[in-house]
Amino acid sequence: MSTQLPEQVEEESSAAEAEPTSAAQERRLEKKRQRAEEKERQRQAEEAEKALDEEDTYHLKVFRYDPEIAGKKEPRFDDFHVPYHKGMTVLDALMYARDTYDSSLTFRHSCRQAICGSDAMFVNGSQRLCCKTQLSDLEEPVRIEPLPHAEVVKDLVVDMEHFYDQMEAVEPYFQTNELPEGELEEQHQTRENREKVKMSTRCIWCGACMSSCNIAAGDNQYLGPAALNKAYRFTMDEREGEDMKQQRLEILEQEHGVWRCQTQFSCTEVCPKDIPLTEHIQELKREAVKNNLKFW
Amino acid sequence: MSQSYNRGLIEDFGRWREFSAGMWAWVFHKFTGWVLVGYLFTHIAVLSTALQSPDAYTTTIQTLEGLLVVRILEVGLLAVAVFHILNGLRLLFVDLGVGLESQDKSFYASLLLTGAIVVASVPTFLAGVFG
Ligand code: HEM
Ligand code: SF4
Ligand code: FES
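Above: the input entities. Below: the structure tokens describing the complete assembly.
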């Protein structure tokens, strides 16, 4: 809206340049410009009011906390009324609220297309990726909180350190002792094997699953769904070879590994990348059992 | 990290309103499992202290079965046992990796079936107690 104003002014002044200008005319133009500005302001105000009247806004209730500011030391919820447009996501609404009403509103985001994994939050009672969640799918007021079961650093930002530690604990990278013969030989994966691990490769490290998990909440050492899924991705990768598989299963079988999973399916339900987490964990459990059962 | 806010245990437990099907199934399964263990011990205790004579045994059972509370508790026990068995079967399938996409539906089915069986059992359990 505001970008239209200077344009108008320029147009008028160039018109004024073309004609020989008298002082009176300049005054007239000045007045005209003021009137136009006034009108525009009024139109904007009316539009905003109309939007509010027609309930074309969404009511957000946003968790606020900041240990460094006296007034925000005690967590509270702030209300924002954000004008709605078709296709608006929760992240869009948060950004509008931040840019328009309160620049101190703090949250993580980057790609805005469900790929960087930085904006998982607790929206209307479940863990969701804000940039992937349509406002129109939500009931009002839209309640936005930082991810549960993590410490809040500020507003909607939680400390992800523990989540990352668990991810690192399963050695989330390709390792193998079975390289192909020739120096320049490529190491191929079969199509079937690629299909098997396909879904598990989609994780964007958003932490939604871990936050939804009751078990992870009660047992801080539990590797958690995302890390176990990451382990699945490599354990099931045939190119890593039998040696590596044994090594990986050893990590997974530990006390706070796969056996902590109680198949509550909360992780599978919240994963924004639709990874069948519980299924993968269950398969790892069976793999672990098969690995240890010997009938001779 | 300068300082951060730990929302604490109350918040953790306060999330139950937002639980999904599988989470409730877990809560109920734990609960029913332990109720069954509790019943098993009570059951052994009551019966083994009533074994002095055939008469003592009969009077004990008759007194107990004459109490409305006991009859109602029996209906409760059936509910708990039936749910535990049905959901237990569901969990066995989950462990085998069968039908994971319908895990929520099978939980609701367990609940409904439990409800139906319990309702159907009420006439039998409460027969004669008001007489
Ligand atoms: C046909 C009958 C039953 C079936 C199919 C069944 C099935 C199951 C299954 C599959 C589990 C494991 C749950 C999990 O994976 O987390 C379980 C747990 C358990 N069951 Fe049963 N069960 C049966 C009867 C009983 C009885 C009679 C008792 C009590 C005497 C009992 C007490 C328990 C307990 C205490 C647990 C552990 C709960 C926990 O802390 O997680 N169950 N049952
Ligand atoms: S498994 Fe899904 S919910 Fe968990 S961190 Fe990865 S993308 Fe997020
Ligand atoms: S902003 Fe990158 S995943 Fe949402």
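Note for the figure: Residues 1-16 of chain A have pLDDT under 50 and may be disordered.
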